[in-house]
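Risk mitigation, structural track. In case the binding assays with zinc ion fail to produce interpretable data, a predicted complex structure has been prepared as a fallback.
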Amino acid sequence: MKFQIISGICDGCTRVRYSSASWYLIEADARIGGMPDRNCRFCNTKLSVTFADLGMSPPSNSYLKPDQLNGMERFYPLHARVCEACKLVQLEEFESPAEIFSEYAYFSSFSASWLKHAERYVEMMIGRFDFDARSQVVEIASNDGYLLQYFKQRGVPVLGVEPAANVAKVALEERRIPSLVEFFGVQTAKNMVADGTGADLLLGNNVLAHVPDINDFVAGMKILLKPDGIITMEFPHLLRLIEQNQFDTIYHEHFSYLSFLTVERIFAHAGLKLFDVEELPTHGGSLRIFAAHAESNRPVEKRVEMMRLLERQFGLESIETYRVFHESVRETKRAFLEFLIQAKRRGSRIAAYGAAAKGNTLLNYCGVRDDFIDYVVDKNPYKQNSFLPGVHLPIYGPEKLAETQPDYVLILPWNIQDEVMEQMSLIRSWGGKFVVAIPKVQVLP
Ligand SMILES: [Zn+2]
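Fallback model:
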């Protein structure tokens, strides 16, 4: 039996108090017929409802070099479940975060639109909350300093917390952004406070969904936040994932799939309240939440109640919504394969654009290899001349498209679909067409 400590009470005691209002009954032994424990990482309720079962898949960023093609590859189940009690959609943890993130291949600064997004955020925050030279901004998962550089330019003191040492080094050497090379949680927060650090603004973009121990992470934020401090977090919105059929955003590094209502529960458990929320177009539809200490007298904006209402009306509090999604994922696979089979029978040649995690999920789930798609192109030189994990499609630079003139170019990162269609418009000169598989299979006009 696995013991998990929540609020100081072992789950062997059968009752765990996790917020002032609710008591949850936890069964003493969560094993069913020898299966491993699968309990909610937030509220410890047993998980029994499937949200999306994408079979066995390799870690999505484990691109292969040519000399690795004959070696063994690690495959793990990609099976998202939803907690019936708190509605947290989640994956199990298979690899330690240290393995995934210690040499992370993705550098945020590679995307021009993401940099603009960061710059606009900094302007908005300084305008709304008056951060200045006396404030301390701390970013969790600060990457190469892509965002903190804009606070620094405006004279606001910054500190990054970034577990990938190679990425933190770039932040320091190229942007002079100091970074602590650590995973964030209660222990890191306590060490920082002991060293005299407290946050007036504590921010994290696309990190909340990536932490395996979400309770420890949020409790750490509570510790580091100054009494009048503000937290902002951005994460892909579960409502948009379901609505737009974005099941290809499910991958192993992405442990949680979050709604506003569930995040509000998780923050309340840690003594934090959400006082505002914005909807953002990034990553197919994200939320930016604003949080403060529960005891702070910061007024709660109207948008908070509107977001709760939106999610309830959409059905996010009903378990049936999650069950229905599972079947729509399976149907997308059938339709995608149907398109590919017909195109190949007509003798068409198909290439793909964007060697991103999304593509790895989709292609591995559907079992699409070079029997359907010849290769993938990507602008990022770190990915070129390697192979997608699992399906082993080769990755080239975008110039390969003009050389081989394929009939179809499948855009894997649908979130930058317009950008790709504009940049790669030359494929139309030989009659090439763009295709996407998400939200549904579509040849684009
Ligand atoms: Zn739960």
